[in-house]
């Protein structure tokens, strides 16, 4: 028995020598940075900003194959998923939602929590501002989104109607601008801000410009609110982004410029047919800054002096190879250095917004012509293109018709519906003036296409060509065709995402009610009234 | 040798003659606490008798004391029998000692035989075999061999047939003829019933007491075909074990799956155990649809020649002793040990050649028009039709191994060295491995204590493992190369100088992300996978008393790994920056294990009791190191691969893939009644660090098993030798993976911080797997025929599943315990010895298994949701509740009610279904419906032939390769259709029936990346000769050394195959992308020879 006791003791000692105290540490990844460690250097609030800013824009499927295509800037030579995909109005990808919530909302919520607890108002304001920027892009896809209920742990989370969203954003912008104004010499942001280097007055200009952008979105559906907010933005003491020095650009932090990878690496994007039609038609000096010439000189017999060729959006494509020789985006985008950035809010856009505001009679907007011409000049300067003066004076050139040299007959061809010239005509009616503003705003928005996609749906301008190939059906909703099968309308939104349809069914049902139509791609958003542009 | 003698031949006693009888022999003997061997030795000294016994028969624990003066020998033997349960059989002056099986067995049998014929019986090592039964067929007369293996027997005439039998050995029949001396070699029978089998923790048990299914494969079988990774040699040998070999060339990884997929997310890999101690079998990265290279696994580093035997516990019955890691079954590897006696040396050398067995059918008749990539010309040309065949070379595998074993009664040692050097069928693909093993064991303190230790060293290096998938794969460009072009231009000059940069860049006719110059891939992206590993262990056994012993063990398994690929500049721009790309990781895998186990055995009257109680501690730290992958972010200076040359955007990562501490206490009790019934109770409590913070880090699970030996309980008809049934129920808990509970933020390449988006799993609990198993096994006709049947039903519950987090939670995903998967199936093993003569023996066995996998519940939020097991562009492997893991959906033809293919009104090409039309797209399951393995061994005089036929029946396999080849117009069928001018089709266009379609229109529509995958789904059914070894065994005459020459082959030929590729060759050895071919390396056949010398 003595022996047994000895053994049991040995076993027990053996067992409890390794107690479970170190379990938690063992199960923690030493190469992750804990919230505690992040407190050093204020990283616990600041270090999330570069990631948040980096996720404002999407990449291939939620950007290049989305609004870059729907707004007709870039076209893909690739018949993805058998040629039936988002660009032909059959929804395969719907992922900006995840990017927005996972990479912007989630970290911003944490920042706001911590910064509020510590009384760090500037970081709270900054995070809220980026959240509005991201949410306003997301709402442009879907309409109602989760915003005021974000953070709820209920199984059903309600979406906000767009009316609630815009009202909420305007109110939040009031607070944000007030906080920034009261702390305009605060230096704590500089370590984390590669856009403005922590220069708060510039962030105020961005916030005011964002208010103007959002106000203009709702100018048809809620004209009084739009005017109030638009005039507030114009009159704001902090000012708007009016010059190149105030442009809001998001650093790539030495990362690859995504369109360059899509274009040069993967060969999945090229100049759009519409860009060819417009830039060649206007003989626009920016064409060589935007695009490289086509590498096959048989492609453009109709305009040999402009060696560019684009791909129709929503085209009938057989093989990717067919159109790889078409115009690539400019080789200038192919990075050899590491100081790349993405354009997010440029002074040209503000001038075009002010030009439209003038048409709408918003106080303080100034002269529509001056802003229209300044917008074009700013854009030419921004891209380093020459010839702005001649361009502004031209009253004859118009966009040309398009021929697809790689398709038989009239497949993928179109006759341009754009008939306006560049030169401002003060005697013209507001509708024509608006068409000119929107057409030039469209050209200037190269590599920053979300807002022109909104504008096109809101105003119908510029008069973009329809899809040649329209694969919409009852699965995701139908985009109208005429009796000959020709498409006569544009994709109006993206459906709510599948994960939400599955996991937040009641919330999505409620959101569909708020949307005011079926959860389909043909349903118009709140500000897309379909009514006249001017009362 | 694990075999001990249990079943005695039930011979009728011959009448005894007037020779000396046991009762007349008087003996004086006095011993105290002597071992049986010592007692028998004394009795031999005191009498003319010789005792014949197998050392394993006699328990080394039995100690006898006796003090007799002139006592009759039969009384002494009766006393010994009472104390030890042995029985004795005397023929002439030999007394054979065996275990007493049944109560009614006679303790002593006596027989006297006349002498007319003599001879000697030797064992497989040419050592004398004492106690062999020799009977005259058709009579009850016989003889036994003496201690030197000699026997004498009188026989009626030359037509007499003698049967030589010895338990544990294959019985032999010999026709006497005119012989007056017969020398015979008996051969080990690996399939004996009451072999001692190695069970969990390395504990040996008699097979008849097991309450669950276990199958054992002898080491000699495993090394016969000389596969570098021994796991591949198990294929077809065991029921219920699916083995898939990687298509990545020599030394690649292997997928082993026992009884089906049991997990929604994990890959259901069994636990691997060496000599009772768990070992790491970490698998490297695996290719997928887009590309990648097999990273190898831990098993390929083991020297197959060190393996004594492999036991496979197919169920989770070992879980009580190994915990959750044993939930998917256990592969127990027992390695060779030193044996006492003169030093024995075994030398083996082999050389095999590997060549392409099955590659796609290609055409070389039609080229491309206008310099495009696709060969769709309809006018035949005269083009090179050899360059694809020429691309592959004959691979070689050289395996040399030597082992030395020997020792004294107190100390034994074993040493081995092995070298493997192999070249694959693709240029530059090489594999090398060196193994050194040293083991020793020493008995101390009057044999009460035994210390043994072992060190296994392995150094392994694989260079340029071939890739699979679309990207950076030599085969995409090779197969699709337009036929009218001159391949030599590209072969002779894989690179050209870019004058703008003065950099060598790839020379290829097109910029296309799918294809690169094959010769540029071979030379321009050198890769290496290197492992240096040491497994060392120390065991201490101490015999506290006759009934109680304790064992303490410790083990360290440490591997240092390097994986590196350098992609030259100027390669495919989709994947490689103009300056090149560097993919590098260096890390260590470490597993430390220690346990303490008490073993207690006792008998109470008719009852026997065995108790194993212990505790264990295991700590694993895997993947700890550093990694960098520049991707398309580039290098500062072209073609320089080191850290200084990294641009700012590239992160160098500190890596850890998991760290886990598990502690456990466990107990296993076996209660036996009269060798008729056995009941097992086991329980285990685990503490797992990965559950820290949940309150569930401690969890208990029990198991119970029962077995009854019918042939002991009832008197069975003559043909039935043995009958047993067994039933068990067990449960096992599985801890969550590493770092699920407290995930944290990570530093992003941008310099910012990427916030963790996985919700901390504070409420997680262990998964529970419940197994119910019923089995029975029967032996007939003195062991000539055997039958084993097992039915199992395994339910896995509370699985870990990542689902979307509540949108407002601030997290992207969260882990929950959910889901239920059921696997049920049967395993049948039938074995027999149909032919059995002294010159010719044929032993055969058939393994049959069938598993049915059903997902009862998957995603709790929505049972309609699919979980993916790998999908891309028409290949959609996914499942949901009601389905099975491995369900395959592909884009399919749109058809009308009559099944006719609908053609597009405008283009006349086939229309295809939408990817979400799930019902229309369902094409079956990727797993076979049933599997069959047929093993054979035939011996004729000095020749022996072993072969295995392996069949998989039912199930599906998918080839993306064929779809891509069709699109490019390079498959043979596209040429055949062009020859006849059309492709036959049963279709309808605008209401009109269509029977012919233009081949280019058709194949370009159905083929390619996004085509209609339906035609590329094949039956997975295949039947093949997996292994073959033809050996000639002889002796080097001058030295009397046993030598064996063998011709060996693997994967020799297909007896039947439906798919255009080998579906049993895995692109990926993890769970995803199963039975998928996407430009995999072709299946190969290996043929060669092997020489084995022992001295």
Describe it:
The complex is a heterodimer of chains A (535) and B (1095). Chain A is mainly alpha-helical and 535 residues long. Chain A contains 22 helices and 4 strands. In chain A, the strands form 2 sheets. Chain A has a two-stranded antiparallel sheet with strand order 1-3. In chain A, strands 2-4 form a two-stranded antiparallel ribbon. The radius of gyration of chain A is 26 Å and the shape is globular. The model of chain A has no long low-confidence stretch (mean pLDDT 91). By secondary structure, chain B is mainly beta. Chain B has a 22-stranded antiparallel barrel. A 5-stranded mixed sheet of chain B has the order 18-23-24-21-22. Chain B has a 4-stranded mixed sheet with strand order 2-5-4-6, with helices on one face.
Q: Please bin the fraction of helical residues of chain A.
A: 40-55%
Query: Shape of chain B, please?
Result: globular
- The H-and-E topology of chain A, N to C, reads as HHHHHHEHHHHHHEHEHHEHHHHHHH
Query: What is the mean predicted local confidence, pLDDT of chain A?
Result: 91
What is the molecular shape of chain A?
Answer: globular
Nearest-integer average pLDDT of chain B = 84
The major beta sheet of chain A can be summarized as:
2 strands, antiparallel
Rg of chain A over CA atoms, rounded to whole Å, is: 26 Å
Strand order of the largest sheet of chain A: 1-3
Q: What characterizes the major β-sheet of chain B? A: 22 strands, antiparallel, barrel
Q: End-to-end span of chain A in angstroms?
A: 103 Å
The count of β-strands of chain A is 4
Strand content of chain A: under 5%
Q: Segments of chain B where pLDDT lies below 50 for 5+ residues?
A: 1-19
Q: Main interface pair?
A: A-B, 78 and 84 residues
Label the structural class of chain A. mainly alpha
């Amino acid at each position: 028995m003595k022996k047994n006791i000895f053994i049991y003791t040995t076993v027990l000692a053996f067992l409890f020598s390794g107690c479970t105290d170190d379990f938690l540490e063992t199960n923690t990844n030493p190469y992750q940075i804990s919230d505690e460690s992040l407190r050093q250097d204020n990283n616990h609030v600041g270090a999330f900003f570069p990631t948040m800013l980096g996720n404002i824009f999407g990449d291939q499927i939620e950007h290049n194959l989305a609004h870059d295509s729907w707004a007709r800037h870039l076209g893909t030579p690739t018949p993805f998923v058998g040629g039936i995909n988002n660009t032909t109005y059959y929804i395969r990808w719907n992922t900006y939602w995840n990017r927005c919530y996972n990479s912007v909302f989630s970290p911003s919520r944490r920042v706001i929590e911590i910064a509020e607890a510590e009384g760090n108002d500037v970081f709270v304001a900054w995070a809220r501002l980026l959240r509005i920027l991201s949410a306003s892009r997301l709402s442009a896809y879907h309409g109602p989104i989760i915003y005021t209920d974000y953070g709820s742990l209920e199984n059903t989370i309600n979406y906000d109607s767009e009316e609630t969203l815009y009202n909420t954003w305007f109110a939040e912008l009031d607070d944000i601008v007030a906080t920034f104004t009261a702390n305009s010499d605060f230096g704590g942001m500089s370590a984390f801000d590669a856009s403005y280097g922590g220069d708060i007055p510039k962030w105020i200009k961005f916030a005011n410009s964002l208010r103007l952008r959002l106000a203009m979105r709702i100018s048809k559906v809620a004209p009084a609110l739009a005017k109030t907010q638009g005039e507030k933005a114009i009159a704001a003491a902090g000012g708007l982004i009016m010059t190149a020095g105030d442009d809001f650009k998001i650093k790539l932090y030495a990362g690859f410029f995504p369109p360059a990878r899509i274009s040069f690496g993967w060969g999945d994007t090229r100049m759009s047919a519409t860009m060819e039609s417009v830039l060649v038609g206007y003989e626009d000096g920016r064409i060589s800054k935007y695009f490289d010439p086509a590498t096959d000189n048989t492609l453009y017999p109709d305009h040999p002096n402009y060696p560019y060729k684009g791909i129709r959006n929503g085209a009938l494509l057989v093989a990717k190879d067919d159109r790889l020789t078409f115009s690539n985006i400019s080789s200038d985008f192919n990075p050899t250095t590491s100081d790349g950035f993405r354009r997010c809010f440029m002074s040209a856009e503000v001038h075009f917004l002010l030009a439209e505001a003038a048409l709408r009679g918003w106080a303080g907007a100034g002269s529509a012509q001056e802003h229209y011409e300044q917008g074009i000049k700013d854009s030419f300067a921004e891209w380093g293109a020459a010839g702005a003066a001649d361009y502004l004076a031209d009253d004859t050139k118009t966009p040309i018709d398009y021929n697809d040299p790689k398709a038989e007959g009239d497949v993928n061809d179109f006759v341009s519906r754009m008939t306006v010239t560049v030169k401002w005509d003060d005697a013209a009616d507001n509708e024509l003036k608006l068409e000119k503003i929107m057409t030039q705003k469209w050209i200037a928005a190269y590599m920053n296409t979300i807002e022109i996609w909104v504008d096109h749906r809101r105003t119908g301008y510029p008069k973009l060509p329809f899809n040649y190939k329209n694969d919409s059906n009852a699965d995701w909703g139908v985009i109208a065709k005429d009796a000959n099968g020709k498409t006569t309308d544009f994709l109006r939104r993206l459906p709510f995402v599948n994960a939400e349809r599955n996991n937040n069914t009641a919330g999505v049902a409620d959101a569909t009610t708020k949307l005011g139509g079926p959860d389909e791609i043909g349903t118009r958003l709140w500000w897309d009234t379909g009514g006249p542009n001017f009362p | 040798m694990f075999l001990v003698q249990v079943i005695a031949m039930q011979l009728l006693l011959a009448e005894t003659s007037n020779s000396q009888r046991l009762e007349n022999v008087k003996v004086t003997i006095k011993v105290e606490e002597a071992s049986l061997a010592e007692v028998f030795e004394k009795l031999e000294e005191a009498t003319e008798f010789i005792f014949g016994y197998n050392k394993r028969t006699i328990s080394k624990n039995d100690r006898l004391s006796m003090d007799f003066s002139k006592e009759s020998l039969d009384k002494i033997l009766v006393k010994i029998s009472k104390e030890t349960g042995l029985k004795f059989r005397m023929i002439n002056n030999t007394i054979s000692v065996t275990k007493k099986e049944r109560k009614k067995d006679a303790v002593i049998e006596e027989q006297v035989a006349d002498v007319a014929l003599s001879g000697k019986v030797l064992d497989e090592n040419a050592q004398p075999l004492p106690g062999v039964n020799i009977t005259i067929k058709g009579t009850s007369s016989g003889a036994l061999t003496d201690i030197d293996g000699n026997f004498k027997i009188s026989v009626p005439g030359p037509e007499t047939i003698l049967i030589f039998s010895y338990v544990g050995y294959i019985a032999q029949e010999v026709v006497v003829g005119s012989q007056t001396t017969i020398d015979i070699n008996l051969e080990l029978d690996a399939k004996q019933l009451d072999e001692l089998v190695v069970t969990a923790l390395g504990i040996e048990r008699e097979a008849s007491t097991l309450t669950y299914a276990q199958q054992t494969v002898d080491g000699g079988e495993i090394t016969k075909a000389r596969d570098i990774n021994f796991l591949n040699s198990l294929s077809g040998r065991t029921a219920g074990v699916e083995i898939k070999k990687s298509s990545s060339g020599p030394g690649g990884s292997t997928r082993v799956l026992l009884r089906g997929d049991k997990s929604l997310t994990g890959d259901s890999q069994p636990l691997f155990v060496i000599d009772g101690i768990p070992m790491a079998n970490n698998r490297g990265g695996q290719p997928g649809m887009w590309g990648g290279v097999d990273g190898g696994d831990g098993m390929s580093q083991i020297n197959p020649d060190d393996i004594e035997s492999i036991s496979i516990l197919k169920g989770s019955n070992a879980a009580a002793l190994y915990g959750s890691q044993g939930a998917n079954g256990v592969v127990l590897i027992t390695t060779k040990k030193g044996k006492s006696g003169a030093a024995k040396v075994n030398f083996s050398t082999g050389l095999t050649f590997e060549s392409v067995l099955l590659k796609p059918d290609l055409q070389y008749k039609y080229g491309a028009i206008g310099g495009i990539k696709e060969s769709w010309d309809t006018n035949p040309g005269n083009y090179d039709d050899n360059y694809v065949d020429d691309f592959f070379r004959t691979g070689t595998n050289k395996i040399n191994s030597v082992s030395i074993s020997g020792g004294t009664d107190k100390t034994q040692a074993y040493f081995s060295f092995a070298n493997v050097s192999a070249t694959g069928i693709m240029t530059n693909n090489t594999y090398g491995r060196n193994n050194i093993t040293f083991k020793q064991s020493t008995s101390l303190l009057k044999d009460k204590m035994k210390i043994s230790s072992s060190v296994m060293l392995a150094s392994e290096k694989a260079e340029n493992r071939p890739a699979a998938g679309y990207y950076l794969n030599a085969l995409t460009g090779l197969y699709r190369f337009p036929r009218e072009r001159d391949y030599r231009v590209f072969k002779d000059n894989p690179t050209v100088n870019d004058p703008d940069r003065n950099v060598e860049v790839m020379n290829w006719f097109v910029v296309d992300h799918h294809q690169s110059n094959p010769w540029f891939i071979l030379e321009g992206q050198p890769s290496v996978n290197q492992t240096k590993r040491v497994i060392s262990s120390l065991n201490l056994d101490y015999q506290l008393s006759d009934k109680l012993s304790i064992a303490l063990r410790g083990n360290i398994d440490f591997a240092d790994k390097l994986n590196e690929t350098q992609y030259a500049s100027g390669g495919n721009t989709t994947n490689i920056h103009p300056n090149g790309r560097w993919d590098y990781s260096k890390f260590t895998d470490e597993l430390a294990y220690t346990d303490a186990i008490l073993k207690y055995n006792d008998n109470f009257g008719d009852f026997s009791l065995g108790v194993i109680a212990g505790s264990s501690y295991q700590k694993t730290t895997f993947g700890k190191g550093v990694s960098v992958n520049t991707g398309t972010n580039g290098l500062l200076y072209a073609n320089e691969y080191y850290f200084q040359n990294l641009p700012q955007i590239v992160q160098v990562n500190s890596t850890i893939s998991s760290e886990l501490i598990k502690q456990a206490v466990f107990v296993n009790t076996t209660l036996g009644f009269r060798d008729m019934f056995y009941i097992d109770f086991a329980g285990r409590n685990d503490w797992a660090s990965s559950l820290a913070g949940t309150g569930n880090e401690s969890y208990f699970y029990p198991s119970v098993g029962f077995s009854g030996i019918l042939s002991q309980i009832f008197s069975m008809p003559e043909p039935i030798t043995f009958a047993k049934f067994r039933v068990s129920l067990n449960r096992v808990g599985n801890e969550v993976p590493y770092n699920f509970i407290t995930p944290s933020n990570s530093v992003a390449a941008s310099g910012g911080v990427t916030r963790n988006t996985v919700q901390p799993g504070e409420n997680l609990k262990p998964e529970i797997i419940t197994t119910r198993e019923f089995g029975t096994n029967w032996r007939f006709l003195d062991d000539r025929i055997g039958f084993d049947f097992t039915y199992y039903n395994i339910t896995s519950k509370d699985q870990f599943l990542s689902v979307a987090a509540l949108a407002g939670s601030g997290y992207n995903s969260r882990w929950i315990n959910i889901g239920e998967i059921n696997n049920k199936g049967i395993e049948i093993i039938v074995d027999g010895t149909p032919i059995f003569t002294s010159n010719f023996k044929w032993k055969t066995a058939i393994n049959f298994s069938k598993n049915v996998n059903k997902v009862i519940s998957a995603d709790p939020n929505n049972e309609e949701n699919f979980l993916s097991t790998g999908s891309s562009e028409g290949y959609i492997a996914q499942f949901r509740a009601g389905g099975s893991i491995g369900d395959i959906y592909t884009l399919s033809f749109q058809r009308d009610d009559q099944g006719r293919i609908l053609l597009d009104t405008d283009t006349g090409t086939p229309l295809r279904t939408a990817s979400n039309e799930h019902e229309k797209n369902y094409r079956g399951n990727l797993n076979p419906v049933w599997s069959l393995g047929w093993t054979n061994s035939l011996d004729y005089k000095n020749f022996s032939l072993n072969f295995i036929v392996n069949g998989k029946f039912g199930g599906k396999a998918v080839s993306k390769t064929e779809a891509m080849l069709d699109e490019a117009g390079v498959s043979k069928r596209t040429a055949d259709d062009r020859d006849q001018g059309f492709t036959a089709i049963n279709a309808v266009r605008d209401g009109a029936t269509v029977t012919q379609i233009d081949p280019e229109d058709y194949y370009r529509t159905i083929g390619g990346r996004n085509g209609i995958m339906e035609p590329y789904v094949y039956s997975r059914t295949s039947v093949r000769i997996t292994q073959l070894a033809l050996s000639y065994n002889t002796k080097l005459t001058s030295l009397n050394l046993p030598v064996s020459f063998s011709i060996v082959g693997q994967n020799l030929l297909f007896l039947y195959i439906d798919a255009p590729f080998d579906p049993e060759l895995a692109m990926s050895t993890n769970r995803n992308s199963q039975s998928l071919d996407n430009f995999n390396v072709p299946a190969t056949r290996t043929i060669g020879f092997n020489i084995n010398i022992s001295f």
